[in-house]
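Because showing beats explaining, we think one record worth quoting, sequence and C-alpha cells together, and here it is:
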Amino acid sequence: MSIALHAFVIGNTTLPSRDCIVFCRYALDLGDPPPAAGSALSVIKGSEHPPGYPLAILAVSQIIGNKTVPQMALSAQVASALAGVLLTIPLYYLTRRLFDRNSAFSATAVSGVLPGFVEVTSDGISDGLFWLTAVTALWFGVLAIERSNRRSATAFGLLAGLMCGLGYLVRPESAVVALSIGLTLLGVVITLARRRRRTKIPNDGIRPRFSAGLALILGWVLVTVPYMVLIGNITNKPSGMGWLKKLLGKEIDPTYFDRQGARPAPQVPLAIWWDDAVNAGESRSVWALKSLWAEYWKASFYVLPAFGVIGLFAVRRRLSDPRFTLLIVFSAIQIFLLWTLAVFIGYVSQRHTILLVLVTCIFTPAGFFALARFAINLWRTPTASRWFGPGLIRVMQNSNPVLLVAIWTAIVMIVALPRNFHSLHEERKGHKLAGLWMKDHVPKENQIVDPFGWAEWYSTRTLKAIPNPVYTPGMADFYVVFTPNANSPHSRLGTYRWAEVLTVPANREIVFRFPEGAPENEIDVAVFKCRPLPVPPLKKK
C-alpha cells in the first residue's frame, strides 16, 4: 500500500518544493561538475547541504533520465519515496523488538498513511532519506543493547554508527540519533557496573555494551570525519551553524530565516515563524514550546498523541528496559534540539517533528491494546448485563483484543488516508504555468528575474545553471516573475527586493497573469516585462 500511495501522490503533484530545485542542481553538479568547481569534492565543499540526498537523486536519475526538468523532478521525488517505502522495514522490526508482530504491523500501517509523512516522502526533499537512516540506526541500537554476545553487540553497534554517519551525510541532525544510542549504552554499562559492585557477582553484560558503544563511535567517525575535513567545518547548513553559534552564545549572521519586514511573517500550514510585530511581548521560549507542540500535533494527525500517551501509561513498568529508554532519551534530545532551534532561529516545521511522530506510532498500538482490554472488561460489569442480552455480552467478553486493535488501526488509517489525495503544492500552480509560458514567449536575450525559482526552472533555462541577472546599459528588457499580492516579505529570497523594485507600476507591463483574467489586486503570480532600472541585483541564495 505504501508503494501505491507514494506513486499516486507523485503522479498527482502540481510541482515539487523549491528545495527540490536546489537538490536537483546539486545532483547534476555532482555528476558533471561545473568548470568553476573542478571536481565533485569541490561541489560538496561549496554547498550548503550535505551530499547524501543529491547522490541518491543522481543514482535514480541514471534510470529515469536527467536531461529535462520533469525527469529531474521525478528523480528527486522517487529517491525520497523509495526512502519512505523502505522505512517501513526498520520501523516494523524496531517495534517488533519492543512489543510483538501485531503491534509492529499496526505501527507501520498507521505511520505509512499519515499525511505529513506521505507528503514529505513524496516531495523532492531530503527528510525521508534522513528518517530512513535514523530509524534503521535506532533498530540496530536496540539490537546492540539486547545482545549479551560481545561480537554480536559490537557488530550491531558498528552498524548503528555507520547508519548515523550516513544520516549525517543527509542531515546533520543525525548526530542526535548517535548521541541517544551512545548515552543509552553508557547508562546500561554504568547500571551494570554498579550492580556488580553491590552484589560482588561478575556481570558479563558490561563488556558487550561497552564494545557496542566503542563500535558506534567508530562507525560514526568513519563516515562523518572525512566529510567534516572536506568542508572544514562541522556542517555547512545555515540553520545548523546558526544553532551552534547561538548555543555557544555567539551572534547569528543574517540568514534566510530572518523574516523581518513591513508585512507579518506567514503562518503557513506546514511551519510556524516568529515575527517581532505579531509576537511582540511574548516569551520566545514559551512561543517555541507552543509552536513545537502545534506542529507535532498536526504532523501526528491530532489523534495519535492521545493513543501514544495511553500506550506509554500501559507499558510504564517496562520503561526502565534500556530498549524503551533509548526511545525516551532520543525523544527528549530531539525535543530539546527542536525547541532550541525554534528559540534561536524562530522557526519550526511539521517535518522536523516526524521522528517524534514515528516514536509515537511505536507506542500507539500499546494504547490500542489497552483500550481493547478496557472495552472487553466493560462487558463484565453489572451495568452491561442490565442493558444488553447474555448472547451479545458473551460474544463481547470473548472478543480477541487483536481484532479490536485492528479496528482501531483501520479507523485511524481511514480517517488519515483522504488527506493524501490533494496535489502537492497546488497553491503554487501559477509559478509552473508562468514558467511554461516563458519557455515559449521569452527570447533568449532577455534575462529572467525569478526570486522563487520555480518559473525559470520550468522555462528550461535553469535546469543546472543558477543565473545571476546583471544590469548593463542598453540591455534588453527583464522578465520578472512576481507575486504582487503576497502576504509575506519573502526576505529569504535573494532577488525578491530587486524584483519588487523592477515591477513598480511606472516601469512594467503585465504579460502573463494567474489566474487568467484576474484583476491586478487578485493576481496570484504575474510575469512582468520591465525596463532595466540601474539597480544592482542581489545575489540569490
Notes: Confidence is low (pLDDT under 50) at residues 255-268.
